[in-house]
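Hello again,

I reread your note about wanting to compare the complex against the isolated chains. To keep things tidy I'm splitting this into two emails, and this first one only covers the full assembly. Below are the input lines as submitted, including protein chains and any nucleic acid or small-molecule components. They are followed by the predicted structure of everything together. The single-chain runs will come separately.
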Amino acid sequence: MPKLLTPAVASAALALFCAARSATAETKPAKPAPVLADQARNYEKPPGTEPEDVALAVPRVILAVPRYTLKLVFYPIREGIEFLDRHAVVEEVEDVLYNDERTAAILPTFSIDSYFGPTFGVKAFHRDLGGHDEYGSAEARFGGLYKLATQLHFRADHFGGSRLWLESVARFESEPGLLFQGIGHSDASPAAGGLAPRDASIATRYSEQRWLNLARAGYSFGRPGSLLQLGATAIYNVRDFGAKQRGSEPSIEQVYDTSQLVGFDERVPTLETDLNIIADFRDVKGATSSGAYIELFGGRVPHLGQYGFWHHGAEVTGYIDLYKQTRVLVLRAFVEGVEGKDAEIPFAELPRLGGPTRLRGYRLDQFRDEKAAVGTVEYHYPIHQYVAGSLYVDAGRVEKSYADFFDSRWKVGGGGGFIVRSRDSQLFTLDTAYGDGVRFYLTTDPLRAFSKKDTEL
Amino acid sequence: MTSKLRALVVACCAFGCASGPRFRDAPPIWHVDDDQNIPEPHEREYDPKEYFANIFVIKRIDRGLQLRDRELAHNINSLEEVPDSTWFQNRLGVRTVSPQEAAKAANTGGPPRRPFSIIGGKVGGGNPGFLLKDGTGRKFLVKFDTEHNPELQTSVGVIVNRIFWTAGYNVPSDHVFSFRKEELRIAPGATYTNERLDKVPFDQKEVDSVLFTAARSKDGSYRAFASQLLEGKPKGGFSPDGKRGDDPNDRVRHEHRRELRGLRVISAWINHSDMKEDNTLDMYVEQNGRQFLRHYFLDFGEAMDGHGAEKGRREDGYENFIDWEMQFRATFAFGLWTRPWEKLKATRWPSIGSFTSQHFDPLEWREAYPYWPFVEMEDADAYWAAKIVMRFDRPMLEAIVAEGKLSDPAAARYLVDTLVARRDAVGRAYFERVSPLDEFAVTTDQFCTTDVSVRYGFVSSSVVEWLRGSTVTASRAVNADGRICVPAPQNDDYTIYRLRVRRGLDAHPPLEIHFKAGKDPRILGIVRSAR
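Full-complex prediction:
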């Protein structure tokens, strides 16, 4: 076998290999390592730990506890939000609840009252029944304020595209714990039991069952911004009263002599016929910042049985633009009264004050008498595109006659809140008010005492 | 050069300017290789509800509890510049860009050409639109102006696209074009994804619905904005913070990228307040045999007053949509505080809206939706971006604005004037946050620099001080053009000059220049915000 690998051959082979390798290296230089984005600074000696990091080390460790706790708390929220997004849950639910045009829906409703707790319900509505913004709804509620409430409602400011203004309501409601705190303003605190309604202001509760039928027809002049509506309304009410069925305060008969409360002990049917005038000169672009809103009604409850009286009301609200439609001063006054013999005016028909639209800072329907008046000074200022702040003072009083208002001490409530709106309309207000205690209100429009009376649950 | 000054400068170096080298003795890196081959990443989904919950509440609280401190951008080179990458290509920042080049920008073939064929509906975003295939086979996303502000979003979309490109960002090829309704044909199989995420046919009813709210010209034609679909596979927008887990090239947390942080300054200039993940896009592209992600910005039509006009936000550019600080202050100011945006007046052009240079304070500018890189922006990041902004001169801006095809020449002139005025406000504000010394040069016998605030005429004079620690060892006034030269050290030691500018009693924060002089003089590094 020939000896191939002699030293000479080996060195020649090695030389050839090295030459070849060298040639390869020349023609194919080693690929440089990629320049990494975080190493472009060319540091020979990167800066060490920064003094801030040293100083903040201990606080960071301490804050890590709430930080990771919050991460845990937020985890299901984030996951939930992500689920909503990824599966278009809101849109899917909307699709189930609304029609394709988004003009009609069947929606669950929920509200909460700090005294009575949650009220649940369901509402079916259509905002464009006849193609001209005719609104119709059917609604039911239970729990909280109601044992049961059901209502059918129809409203058309321009019925069928005409200038005809039509509205009708049919409602049954059973309220287990309405507030009765005497009539008038007695500050006396006699021992409870057998009191006359004007003897004391003690908070009590009573139940009411009510059938309501309302029909209104009228005519609209002008257009939004300078709108005048003239109409006539007929309201048929049948009320039955009884002892409280809910609420921690005493039942009415435990404190007051209900035989002295007109209408309490028997069924009260009334038919009221009113004339209505609404003049709306508010600006219509964005949030209201100027103009005025005036609402007047007056009419008669004729004697169908033992009850008969006159009923009237007036509300005037003026908006004064203080600065570029963003700072607005609102002045409002309303009066409401019934006229007739005391024995012919059911206690439930007496004008009432207290609550989000009628004297903030006091409980709903805390005051009642034959005459009621409220004055409001309210100031709106901008916070966010869709949120304005408000500061207000309400002063109100109920009395037996208007003459008594001039020598009486008025009830004053004041506070502030937030007005939440969309680009086109006001959505709701959140108010905190102090009168005889701190009250919180969530309402659609605190500056309307009459416009939704008897038409909204 | 006086012998006294020479002695002071030499003394400065002898006593303390020189210390251990921070920078390698190597040329600055102007390109990073973040275009390495990577496996195809998944497509990121944009969940608007989660995104807004994060930026306004959840992450905001978390960031507060993190006690974050100031941090230098992580992707800058030794000269505090941003190297070219898949995120950013240095253009106006480092070279001359002609007005024609700026106006052309990423334009790869002009606006759509007839015949037009609708191939689907637009997905996402607040404005209606559709996908169009033109006679050359290119595909475009088409959007429209609103009825109340004709020409606004279409012009702004194109103008800001050119500005972004010229500054160095990746953008699509965007155009203004017109068509008549009867020129549109619906391609068979055209679909769109509706709000419920169902794929449904895009039919004539949908086209009518899109065009119903679109502004229409007097001759009945529709003026539209067309954005050519990008090459590659879309992989969703890039997160405003953190890194993309499935992209090994993505090595720098996004909130620490200088080009994203500095974008706050550019956005302030043009009021690009609608900065959010939804207006960015990662494309999986193939180039030179490698597949990687390239990062784009898109949808600029809401800059200037586009967002404000569309959303009815007068405070656009002045407050976040939910601005805990400003709106908390407003709540308890009870209306006695007149916020700056309340003084704005709309211009006479609906195509311009309320975009103005009045009451514009770049330092106070705020995007509509908090964007973490903007929140992390440091003065050095802002200075870097302000330098780019200042390089947009009037001829360039005229050429760019012309691309917006505003029908009223007076509106176009106003827009250029406004951009120039806001540009100067940006330069003035951010240059003066640092010692605005730039254009450093070391020769065998001189060390030179320029106070760019003097050069741009923002201030009339300036004194440059040499420091050892915080002790001034030498000082000298700059020339009328802002330039100053002093003798360079005669050796090639690693030298650090610690400099600052002084304007009267106002001493600006110091910076450091690391260099070697001698026979082969070179700048080794800059620390813009020296401690």
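For quick reference: Residues 1-26 of chain A have pLDDT under 50 and may be disordered.

B.
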